[in-house]
């Protein structure tokens, strides 16, 4: 019965307090807008990391492996020996095509300077030389216009994001790279980080960039996913090789971790500073609300209302304002940032991606808003409950 009585008291006091919010519209708006700003900034900044990480992690999978120079953290920093592809292609763990050729693509990653359509400034873009079996190793990559390049020719296929953002990359265009003319013969869409790349024949790209004998990485596929350990042991124990191997999912996850972590730390720091201001705004608003309702609260306590219902009711009032601000901020962040295109530097060049305002981010934004409301309302709630009844009844 005590629980039911307390619940009824909380409901009664909370209804009265929430009903008076429109009468304090200016002060209430300060809390709502302040919390909306915190949530909007937090969700917007974290959406950068989410989008970047999502783009990279969906580029890899557990079926393909990437072989890099031992100790290299990325393809751009890796240089494999000239004979490395031939040695590794003999490994019995590798899958083979219908012609009994190992499913392996020797690849070279370099940078190409292109002019952005929006600013006219030069920016670095990843230019990847691929082997003839690269398309079979990446079935998600589809030509959406034109054709693939012919082996031995200075021809390029361009990722859809590169074609969209950079001048001189349309189908049939000719661009100068390392003093040589290259023709765009196709546009592809991969739905991942490869959309930020140009592709060419690795045997043509290498000499053009003075990397004729070296490759950055090998992309391979095993005949059995359980053969990874045996394949890794074979490579590590071969005295002719100094390489490391990992799944492509592991590789791209590692590439995204550092930047995503930095963005999250920056977002949380900025949002925390703003949250302090929102908390002070909530404190000021709720202290004013308690002061204007002092006689009302004292009267309720005088006729038998306990302190707990008073505390909870004030907190609920603040949490309602916080929830409104949180929903406003989350909604604005979703409208403005979800799917917004951006780019950042990755291994070899820019990586173009879209902000991702995920349901998890929206949920975390609302939780942050409610936390601010709780902290901002706690002290005024305690003050309201501890105010001497006689003193409060004498207040105007």
Tell the overall outline.
Answer: elongated
Low-confidence stretches: none
Q: Considering DSSP H and I runs of 4 or more, what fraction of the residues is helical?
A: 40-55%
Strand content: 15-25%
Task: Give helix and strand order, one letter per element, not per position.
Answer: HHEHEEHEEHEEEHEHEHHHEEHH
What is the helix tally?
12
Tally of separate domains: 2
Organism: Steroidobacter flavus
Domain MacB-like periplasmic core: 28-234
Subcellular location: Cell membrane
Keywords: Cell membrane, Membrane, Transmembrane, Transmembrane helix
Describe the structure in your own words.
By secondary structure, the protein is of the alpha+beta class. The protein folds into 2 domains: 2-57 and 256-394, no CATH class; 71-241, no CATH class. The protein has helices at residues 2-19, 25-57, 84-88, 134-137, 160-165, 202-208, 228-237, 248-292, 294-302, 307-337, 359-386, 389-394, and strands spanning 64-69, 104-115, 122-130, 142-146, 155-159, 174-177, 180-189, 197-201, 217-221, 243-247, 341-346, 349-354. The chain is elongated and about 90 Å long.
Tags for this entry?
2 domains, 396 residues, 12 helices, alpha+beta
């Amino acid at each position: 019965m005590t629980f039911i009585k307390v619940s009824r008291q909380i409901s009664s006091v909370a209804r009265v307090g929430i009903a008076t919010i429109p009468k304090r519209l200016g002060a209430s708006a300060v809390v709502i807008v302040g919390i909306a700003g915190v949530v909007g900034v937090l969700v917007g900044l974290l959406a950068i990391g989410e989008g970047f990480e999502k783009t990279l992690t969906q580029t890899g999978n557990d079926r393909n492996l990437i072989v890099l120079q031992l100790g290299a953290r990325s393809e751009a920093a890796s240089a494999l020996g000239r004979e490395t592809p031939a040695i590794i292609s003999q490994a019995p763990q590798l899958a083979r095509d219908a012609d009994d050729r190992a499913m392996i693509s020797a690849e070279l990653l370099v940078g190409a300077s292109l002019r952005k359509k929006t600013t006219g400034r030069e920016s670095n873009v990843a230019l990847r030389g691929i082997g003839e079996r690269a398309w079979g190793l990446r079935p998600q990559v589809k030509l959406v216009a034109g054709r693939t390049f012919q082996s031995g020719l200075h021809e390029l296929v361009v990722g859809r994001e590169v074609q969209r953002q950079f001048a001189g990359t349309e189908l049939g265009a000719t661009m100068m790279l390392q003093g040589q003319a290259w023709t765009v013969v196709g546009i592809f869409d991969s739905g991942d980080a490869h959309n930020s790349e140009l592709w060419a024949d690795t045997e043509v790209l290498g000499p053009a960039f003075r990397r004729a004998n070296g490759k950055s990485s090998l992309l391979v596929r095993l005949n059995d996913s359980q053969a990874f350990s045996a394949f890794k042991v074979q490579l590590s124990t071969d005295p002719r090789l100094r390489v490391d191997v990992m799944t492509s999912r592991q590789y791209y996850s590692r590439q995204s971790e550092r930047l995503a972590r930095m963005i999250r730390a920056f977002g949380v720091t900025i949002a925390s500073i703003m949250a302090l201001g929102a908390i002070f705004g909530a404190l000021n608003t709720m202290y004013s609300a308690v002061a204007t309702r002092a006689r009302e609260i004292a009267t309720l306590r005088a006729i038998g209302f306990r302190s707990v219902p008073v505390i909870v009711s004030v907190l609920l009032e603040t949490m309602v304002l916080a929830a409104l601000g949180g929903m406003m901020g989350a909604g604005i962040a979703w409208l403005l940032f979800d799917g917004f295109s951006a780019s950042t530097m990755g291994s070899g060049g820019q990586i173009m991606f879209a902000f991702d305002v995920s349901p998890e981010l929206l949920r975390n934004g609302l939780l942050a808003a409610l936390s601010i409301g709780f902290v901002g309302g706690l002290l005024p709630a305690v003050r309201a409950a501890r105010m001497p009844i006689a003193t409060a009844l004498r207040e105007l």
